Amino acid sequence: MEVSPIGTFFGDAVYKYDLPRQGSLFAGHSGRIELLPGKNFETALRNLDGFERIWVIFQFHENEGWRPTTRPPVASPGINRVGIFASRSPYRPNPIGLSCLKLLRIEGLTIYVDESDLLNRTPVLDIKPYIPLADSFPNAKAGWVETQEISSWSVISEPLFLEKSSWIYNQLKWDLKTFATLQLSRNPEDATRCRLVLNGEYGVLSYRTFRIDFYLNRTTQKVYLQNIRSGYTSEELQSSDDKYGDKAVHLAFKNFWNENV
After folding, report:
1. Alpha helices in 98-229 (DSSP H)
2. Residues contacting 173, CB < 8 A, separation 6+
């Protein structure tokens, strides 16, 4: 079997933790698919702009190997792990993904989409229209997913967090506000997630080399995003070792906010 990409997806999500677990549940993760030129794909796109959603078949290009079982991202009573074929895990025998994206518009060979869960530079293998009559089965049984204990929370950004997240976005185009909202609006007390540390009502969420401080009000089920800190210690910032090439930004961040370096 020979499969060749027809194009590439481009978006802001570079790391896997940048993405929502199911893109269609959240707006805000927009991007574009750029189809290859010289393939007559302009003709292949004819009439696609009349659809609101499209199926995008793609390659999990950042994954190596596969796992026969996986731990569900949201707990179900009595279920610790499920078979890979009973999950949406990206670690599959053939690294092929399927997502239903919202179609915004088409310009030439570029397809603009929203509600995506694809990483930047994901190879796109095929595109098909979403047809509600054929593709929607709202009353179909959903197995173990029906027993998931999903906890929905409101995420509120406090002024200091908003100021710092805006500064970081202006400098790096890293959207920490959207990231934190996606990560904490569902099951924010799931301490098994590797980038989340919870100590009572207070928690820390890691985004690359920054740390987001938040507070949980369990009575109202609200998450308050309070602050953003550099993940580097003063000693680390003074060291010449710059593995991620971002220490200059962190130094500027600390100086701007008059924080000790």
Report:
1. 132-135, 159-172, 176-184
2. 12
Cβ–Cβ < 8 Å for 71, 81? yes
pTM of the model: 0.71
Alpha carbon separation from 49 to 25, 28, 55 (Å, rounded): 22, 20, 13
Second-level CATH architecture of 154-256? 2-Layer Sandwich (3.30)
| 126: CB partners within 8 A, 6+ apart | 6, 56, 57
Domains of the chain: which residue ranges? 7-147, 154-256
Instruction: Dump pLDDT digits (tens) for 59-112.
Output: 999 888 898 998 876 667 778 789 999 988 888 999 999 999 999 999 999 999
Q: Which fold has domain 7-147?
A: Elongation Factor Tu (Ef-tu); domain 3 (2.40.30)
Report residue 8: phi and psi, to 5°. -135, 140
Cβ-based burial of 28 (10 A; exposed 0-12, middle 13-18, buried ≥19) = middle
